[in-house]
From TrEMBL:
It comes from Gramella jeungdoensis. This is Intradiol ring-cleavage dioxygenases domain-containing protein. The keyword Lyase does not apply. Residues 1-30 form the signal peptide. Keywords: Signal. GO terms for molecular function: iron ion binding; oxidoreductase activity, acting on single donors with incorporation of molecular oxygen, incorporation of two atoms of oxygen.
Length: 184
């Protein structure tokens, strides 16, 4: 007598196999999206183009970051350079504050955001990816209540900016303004 498996058993095994294939495929897609060349957490290459990252314009401390993107020698401003920024949202451990913007014809950029939250053991910071058709560069701007600071890596990579290297902070009642220049 020939043993013929039931139709229900066949459907169950098919459903399990299909689910496994779908889970495997979706995890591969998720790894592709999150596994970027960024040295910093929270990078999303599909950020929305905008210059105002604030969740609320009425409450909380706001921060305006502006500056110029220069060529590698620090001599000429770069127009149409793409700047991607992101940071931890206030009172959160998620990177919901992110945007993409371009420099104008003078190499200038500007965006406004809520004051960033900090990762455990670190000062609050804003992450940057600057790119053009030829290259890209990642850096970070460290922010605290007394001003803005660069990292040793940024100092090393951008020394040719000379007097434009260090960030300049201006404090106002409910917001701060930081001028932060970068070479690409």
């Amino acid at each position: 007598m020939k043993n013929i498996p039931s139709r229900r058993l066949f459907l169950r095994k098919s459903a399990i196999a299909t689910t496994g294939v779908l889970l495997l495929s979706s995890s591969s897609i998720a790894n592709t999206l999150t596994n970027t060349d960024s040295p910093f957490d929270g990078y999303n290459p599909y950020s929305e183009e905008k210059t105002d990252l604030r969740i609320s314009t009425l409450f909380g401390k706001h921060l305006t970051v502006k500056g110029k993107i220069y060529n590698k020698n620090g001599t000429f401003p770069l127009s149409n350079a793409i700047i991607e920024v992101w940071h931890l949202s206030p009172n959160s451990t998620k990177f919901k504050h992110r945007a993409k913007l371009k420099t104008n014809s003078f190499g200038e950029y500007s965006f406004t955001s809520d004051f960033p939250n900090r990762e455990q053991g670190k000062m609050p910071r804003i992450y940057f990816k600057i790119s053009n058709s030829e290259t890209y560069y990642f850096t970070e701007l460290v922010i605290n209540r007394t001003g803005a600071h660069i990292t040793d890596k940024h100092w090393h990579d951008n020394q040719l900016l000379k007097e434009h290297l260090f960030p300049i902070t201006e404090e106002f009642e409910n917001y701060s303004s930081v001028t932060f220049n970068i070479s690409l």
